[in-house]
């Protein structure tokens, strides 16, 4: 429908060359072998860029060269190789991250690459975004209360692996020393599984009343649950409930650190207690990071397999046209319930892992804002496409935890005449901006800009991209019925 | 086909150029102090010669609705460092970075930021002390990490945490295992200059008893501080034979508290305790309560309801309200405190001084003095912190006890009269009431 | 097995559900009514006092909810920025009342009336223009994009507007002195109906009537309704759809501005994040009444105001302010379970 003439810069380049007197440059260039056509321009450009930088006294870091070479090789490799080479490279780059982080170069504007802590948070939010993607991206059910699942996962993990319930003294596969006050301490791995299952059940319970609803009525009901559960968390102590369920605003802390315990540590060399590892590269954070990567892979695998399964196709059918799907024999209730359950499951895993990463759970964490945040990741990344969602989650989490602060710092150092100002409460003082004051606005502006420039998301799902380009509406039935 | 090639190569070119340009950042020469990352922390505040030997960081939530108080604390620390200490503590030069433990999305402190910041402080060898946190929940996460920091426990001093469990156990308020669970190495590294909830609460209950009210309706803002004080009041009221007719939260974001006032009126309560901070819509709450309950019902609030000028925004409704302050409120500080207030007013160009700014200034002084006495290592600063004795300081005369608490525990009661807090009495709750 | 699963949604279960659901609903309504009656009997004073409070606060919610409903009706967009525009209207009001007019506690009618009129004018015009600008910048480029893309830009705009207020007025709530007269109009026993409560209605009701007139009886209103019904058909009938949408945003912004004035003068405080929470409640009211349905939005707003007030103000087995949010949303969920199309909504495929 909207076909704007694209690539005019390309045309312009040749026209300019033609005007400069090189008559049939374009014909000759396009007759060259394809590999050369593909390979030469970026190589020349990269060599030029690095060369100019070097000449002006900025030797490129080795990490930069390695990254450039890697991406160049990937770029040149044929599609059938790249299909598996790209994920494998990406994964190995990610796994090796703690080892070369210190040797990385500084990025422009956002300055630093994400620290290890941020990487863990990014991985955790990626898990949540992938979970929400099943509900929103696959099944097309707008969920504004995903934070409820995150909360349930976190609290279940905290109940099962901390000294919160001092009434009982249960230890099962737990690591770390006994503080002597009791509490349920079961192995964090088991707690993870239980948290996920409990959350999935909660997903079904939340899904049940919403089954008769469609569209934004459903969204508001999920929003309702997203408001109710955090309030229960906040009030869930002796005074509010008559039973100390969540310890109210004080939160539950510390949550046990993860670890494999003695036997596995002795026989397989796995870390016995993450917290006890103090190495330069192998330490608490990097171990949490690697485990989180593993969990993300698991979520990713489940996401892709579910999408291609019978259930996943039913979800997509419902998303595209609920009435038609029902007419074709897709059981609406069951299919939607499964979407909630699956989405909740991974939200629970992520919440539980977040609890053990933070070593605590606090009622203040679970606000409507977080639901919105995760929804932004899914839609901004490209609804329905797992790769897009991963990019969206990583990007927004990085912005939220580090990027915005760094952007502000960069503005202060490089653009503004900043001298000794900073956090003063005024937007601008002594030539410095107050970064925390403006962060929220910058964040909003980035979200709006990305969405306006790429309304279909950064990496849209193929099917959606098609819809977008040919202009199929999201819900064609609605217009007819009004 | 080949068009797409050129277009595709564009991002590669761009990123290559960017990356190469960015490489310049890492080329900067090493300085004496390793600067904390700008992801959380502002620029180093240092105007002395060369670059500072050590860094002091403050860890406060600088975003969201509650940012006014942390912000005033940052200013107070800057003031103390620049004007009083001239960026030196004894033999050492000190730079200051203000770090943020909140995120844009959360609009307040975020646990993942607290832990990430804590690890950054612990791993940055030039950080010699941390001032913070504002939220007790955040302190619970940071203390153990700093306690395990390489090169001995890293000193931390809080101007704002009132949750007792961080330093000592209090029956019925703290949890089992506190405070030991925050100090995995067994050595203490955390002190604070504010009195804890378990002292202020009983004092407020005592006040209600002395003013001959037989029942109290307890409201709180459902945050760690507010609920903590409210619980302490509830516990002490029970001991004193005052009937607690209700224990409920007020919603800081609610449009109106008239209905809450109607409910309290029906309960027939003779006094209302407002456990929370005035920033959580406190002025509006006071207005609606006074309006709905009439002038006879006693309103009592803890030091979260300071400065008095913020309470006075409730207008005539605030008249006759009692506010308890642990230590001394700004209006009653000694000569050093008064001098600080006046100098700070000029420095920050503010008309009113937030009491947290005063606590932050005192905390900064104590930390800088401890650094001055130390031999420049983390354990020695921590040890010196516990030997602190302040004589006629900003907050008065006190010392830090072996738990890390201030000995300044007298609770002063103020009565709002004519838009100002007037001294009413000083209360020392007995041991049996506190325990 | 497979065929059974396929046949499932069509017949047999519906009958049971169709019987069970309404009867359960009736039982629940009965329980709530009984609870109210007991409270009324126990303490009629408190009951009526709380009732008046609920109506006043509910009218406030309704005013904000209308803006959501208007926009939703025409674009099917949950305009998350609406609550924040409303908040900015409140900020403008404080600027007019305090900075321009310098009102103190309990001013005379002579100085109050022009200040309120000026505040209304500034807030309505300012918010209207702001809302139209937001539409132009953030929503118009997304006319043909997936609906959720616009939802995300709305969220982004909401952050930006909040930050504007934060930079402008700081993070603390701005206290406004008692400007509205607080004496009672009539008093029976302990129950009183107050002037400030009446003034909320005095401003709210004409605004609502004006809106009804605009939507029902003017050409522009007809265009709005047509666009809401079917954008493509409206365009074919010669309606300038883009202009109509912009106009709708302008009107919604004006409503938000008026709501800002009423809110600030009645509640006497406003903060940069006031709009987010109140917007959430207002949006909930809009859905409760039937999304896109204007009388429904008003009904929903009043209902939520009453639920809140009853929960917080009554004393016999009322859960109290700790649980307000949970109660409101539980009732919302229950109502939607029994009436999936909202209270006044029509049964469309959207509403199940």
Please give a structural write-up.
The complex is a heterotrimer of chains A (482), B (435) and C (352). With 482 residues, chain A is an all-alpha fold. In chain A, 66% of the residues lie in helices and 2% in strands. Chain A starts with 7 loop residues before the first helix and ends with a helix. Mean pLDDT of chain A is 84; it is low at 472-482. Chain B is of the alpha/beta class. Chain B is built from 13 helices and 17 strands. The longest helix of chain B is centred in the first third of the chain and has 25 residues, at 2-26. Chain B is globular and about 65 Å long. The N and C termini of chain B lie far apart (81 Å). Chain C is mainly α and 352 residues long. Chain C has helices at residues 2-7, 12-42, 44-75, 81-100, 109-139, 147-169, 195-217, 219-229, 231-236, 241-267, 274-289, 294-313, 324-338; strands spanning 174-175, 184-188, 191-194, 269-270. In chain C, the strands form 2 sheets. Chain C has a two-stranded antiparallel ribbon. Residues 1-10 of chain C have low confidence and may be disordered. Classes of the chains: A mainly alpha (482), B alpha/beta (435), C mainly alpha (352). At the A-B interface, helix 1, helix 3, helix 4, helix 7 and helix 16 of A face helix 1, helix 2, strand 4, strand 5 and helix 3 of B.
DSSP E strands of chain A, number: 4
How do the helices and strands follow one another from N- to C-terminus of chain A?
HHHHHHHHEEHHHHHHHHHHEEHHH
Computed Rg of chain C: 22 Å
Mean of pLDDT of chain C: 86
State the helical fraction of chain A: 55-70%
Question: Low-confidence stretches of chain A at least 5 residues in length (pLDDT < 50)?
Answer: 472-482
Strand order within the widest sheet of chain C?
Answer: 1-4
SS element count, helices of chain C? 13
Summarize the main sheet of chain C. 2 strands, antiparallel
The main sheet of chain A orders its strands as 1-2
The number of helical segments of chain A is 21
Q: Span between N and C termini of chain A? A: 25 Å
Sheet/helix structural class of chain C:
mainly alpha
Shape of chain A: globular
- Structural class of chain A, please? mainly alpha
The parts of chain C where pLDDT drops under 50 for at least 5 residues are 1-10
C-alpha geometry of chain C: globular
């Amino acid at each position: 429908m909207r076909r704007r003439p694209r690539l005019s810069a390309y045309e312009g380049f040749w026209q300019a060359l033609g005007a400069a007197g090189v008559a049939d440059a374009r014909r000759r260039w396009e007759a060259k072998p394809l590999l050369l056509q593909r390979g030469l321009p970026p190589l020349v450009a990269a060599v030029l860029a690095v060369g100019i930088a070097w000449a002006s006294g900025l030797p490129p870091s080795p990490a930069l060269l390695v990254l450039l070479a890697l991406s160049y090789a990937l770029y040149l490799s044929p599609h059938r190789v790249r299909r598996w080479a790209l994920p494998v490279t990406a994964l190995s780059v990610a796994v090796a991250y703690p080892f070369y982080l210190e040797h990385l170069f500084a990025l422009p504007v956002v300055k630093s690459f994400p620290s290890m802590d941020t990487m863990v948070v990014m991985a955790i939010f990626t898990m949540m975004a992938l979970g929400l993607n099943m509900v929103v991206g696959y099944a097309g059910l707008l969920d504004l209360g995903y934070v409820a699942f995150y909360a349930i996962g976190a609290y279940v993990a905290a109940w099962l692996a901390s000294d919160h319930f001092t009434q009982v003294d249960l230890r099962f596969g737990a690591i770390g020393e006994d503080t002597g006050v009791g509490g349920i301490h079961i192995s964090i791995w088991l707690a993870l599984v239980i948290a996920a299952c409990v959350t999935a059940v909660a997903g079904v319970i939340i899904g049940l009343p919403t089954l008769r609803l469609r569209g934004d009525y459903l969204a508001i009901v999920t929003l309702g649950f997203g408001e109710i559960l955090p309030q229960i968390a906040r009030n869930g102590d002796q005074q509010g409930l008559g039973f100390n369920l969540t310890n109210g605003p004080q939160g539950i802390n510390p949550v046990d650190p993860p670890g494999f315990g003695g036997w596995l540590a002795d026989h397989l060399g796995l870390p016995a207690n993450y917290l006890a590892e103090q190495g330069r590269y192998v330490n608490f954070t990097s171990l949490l990071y690697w485990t989180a990567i593993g969990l993300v892979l698991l979520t990713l695998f489940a996401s892709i397999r579910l999408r291609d399964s019978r259930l996943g196709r039913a979800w997509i059918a419902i998303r595209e046209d609920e009435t038609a799907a029902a007419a074709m024999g897709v059981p609406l209730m069951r299919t939607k319930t499964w979407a909630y359950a699956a989405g909740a499951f991974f939200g629970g895993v992520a919440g539980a892992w977040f609890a053990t990463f933070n070593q605590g759970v606090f009622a203040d964490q679970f606000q409507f804002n977080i639901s919105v945040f995760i929804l932004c990741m899914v839609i901004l990344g490209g609804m329905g496409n797992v790769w897009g969602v991963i990019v969206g989650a990583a990007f927004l989490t990085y912005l939220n935890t580090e990027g915005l602060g760094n952007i502000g710092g960069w503005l202060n150092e490089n653009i503004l005449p900043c001298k000794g100002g900073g956090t003063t409460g005024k937007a601008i003082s002594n030539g410095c901006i107050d970064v925390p004051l403006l962060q929220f606005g910058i964040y909003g502006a980035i979200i709006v800009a990305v969405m306006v420039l790429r309304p279909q998301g950064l990496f849209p799902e193929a099917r959606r991209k098609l819809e977008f380009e040919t202009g199929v509406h999201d819900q064609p039935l609605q217009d007819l019925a009004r | 086909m080949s068009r797409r090639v050129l277009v595709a190569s564009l991002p590669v070119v761009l990123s290559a150029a960017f990356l190469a340009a960015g490489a310049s950042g890492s080329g900067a020469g090493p300085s004496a102090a390793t600067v904390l990352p700008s992801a959380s922390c502002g620029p180093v505040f240092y105007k002395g010669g060369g670059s500072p030997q050590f860094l002091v960081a403050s860890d406060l939530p600088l975003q969201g609705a509650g940012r006014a108080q942390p912000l005033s604390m940052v200013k107070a620390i800057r003031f103390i460092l620049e004007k009083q200490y001239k960026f030196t503590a004894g033999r050492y030069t000190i730079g200051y970075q203000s770090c943020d433990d909140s995120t844009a999305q959360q609009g307040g402190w975020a646990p993942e930021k607290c832990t990430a910041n804590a690890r950054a402080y612990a791993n940055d060898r030039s950080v010699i002390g941390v001032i913070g946190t504002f939220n007790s929940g955040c302190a619970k996460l940071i203390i153990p990490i700093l306690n395990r920091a390489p090169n001995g426990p890293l000193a931390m001093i809080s101007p704002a945490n009132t949750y007792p469990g961080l330093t000592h156990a209090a029956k019925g308020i703290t949890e089992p295992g506190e405070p030991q669970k925050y100090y995995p190495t067994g050595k203490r590294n955390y002190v604070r200059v504010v009195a804890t909830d378990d002292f202020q609460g009983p004092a407020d209950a005592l006040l209600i008893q002395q003013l001959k009210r037989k029942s109290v309706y307890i409201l709180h803002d459902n945050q760690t501080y507010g609920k903590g004080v409210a619980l302490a009041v509830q516990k002490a009221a029970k001991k004193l034979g005052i009937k607690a007719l209700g224990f409920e939260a007020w919603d800081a974001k609610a449009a109106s508290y008239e209905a809450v006032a109607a409910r309290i009126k029906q309960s027939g309560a003779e006094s209302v305790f407002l456990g929370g901070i005035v920033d959580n819509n406190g002025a509006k709450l006071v207005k609606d309560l006074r309006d709905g309950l009439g002038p006879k019902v006693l309103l009592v609030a803890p030091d979260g309801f300071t400065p008095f000028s913020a309470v006075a925004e409730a207008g005539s409704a605030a008249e006759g309200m009692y506010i308890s302050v642990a230590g001394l409120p700004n209006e009653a500080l000694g000569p050093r405190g008064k001098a600080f207030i006046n100098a700070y007013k000029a420095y920050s160009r503010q008309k009113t001084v937030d009491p947290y700014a005063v606590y932050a200034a005192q905390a900064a002084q104590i930390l800088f003095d401890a650094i001055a006495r130390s031999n420049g290592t983390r354990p020695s600063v921590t040890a010196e912190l516990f030997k602190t004795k302040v004589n006629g300081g900003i907050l008065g005369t006190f010392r830090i006890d072996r738990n890390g608490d201030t000995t300044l525990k007298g609770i002063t009661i103020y009565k709002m009269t004519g838009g100002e807090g007037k001294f009413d009495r000083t209360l020392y709750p007995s041991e049996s009431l506190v325990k | 097995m497979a065929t059974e699963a396929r046949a499932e949604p069509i017949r047999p279960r519906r009958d049971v559900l169709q019987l069970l659901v309404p009867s359960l609903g009736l039982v629940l309504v009965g329980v709530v009514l009984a609870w109210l009656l007991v409270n009324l009997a126990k303490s009629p004073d408190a009951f009526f006092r709380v009732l008046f409070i609920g109506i006043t606060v509910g009218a406030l919610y309704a005013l904000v909810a209308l803006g959501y409903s208007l926009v939703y009706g025409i674009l099917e967009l949950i305009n998350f920025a609406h609550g924040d525009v409303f908040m900015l209207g409140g900020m403008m009001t404080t600027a007019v009342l305090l900075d321009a007019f310098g009102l103190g506690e309990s001013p005379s009618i002579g100085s109050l009336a022009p200040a309120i009129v000026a505040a209304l004018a500034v807030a309505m015009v300012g918010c209207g223009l702001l809302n139209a600008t937001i539409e132009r910048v953030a929503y118009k480029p997304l006319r043909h994009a997936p609906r959720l893309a616009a939802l995300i830009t709305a969220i982004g705009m909401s952050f930006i507007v909040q930050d504007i207020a934060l930079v402008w007025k700081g993070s603390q709530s701005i206290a406004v002195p008692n400007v509205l007269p607080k004496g009672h109009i009539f008093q029976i026993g302990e129950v009183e109906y107050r002037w400030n409560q009446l003034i909320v209605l005095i401003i709210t009701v004409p605004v609502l009537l004006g809106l009804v007139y605009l939507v029902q009886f003017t050409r522009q209103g007809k265009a709005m309704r047509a666009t809401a019904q079917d954008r493509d058909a409206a365009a074919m009938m010669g309606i300038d759809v883009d202009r109509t949408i912009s106009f709708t945003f302008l009107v919604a912004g004006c409503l938000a501005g008026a709501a800002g004035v009423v809110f600030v003068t009645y509640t006497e405080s406003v903060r940069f994040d006031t709009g987010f929470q109140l917007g959430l409640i207002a949006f909930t009211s809009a859905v409760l009444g039937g999304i896109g349905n204007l009388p429904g939005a008003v009904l929903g707003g009043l209902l939520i105001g009453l639920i809140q007030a009853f929960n917080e103000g009554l004393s016999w087995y009322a859960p109290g302010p700790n649980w307000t949010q949970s109660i409101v949303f539980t009732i919302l969920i229950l109502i939607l379970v029994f009436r999936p199309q909202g209270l006044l909504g029509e049964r469309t495929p959207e509403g199940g």
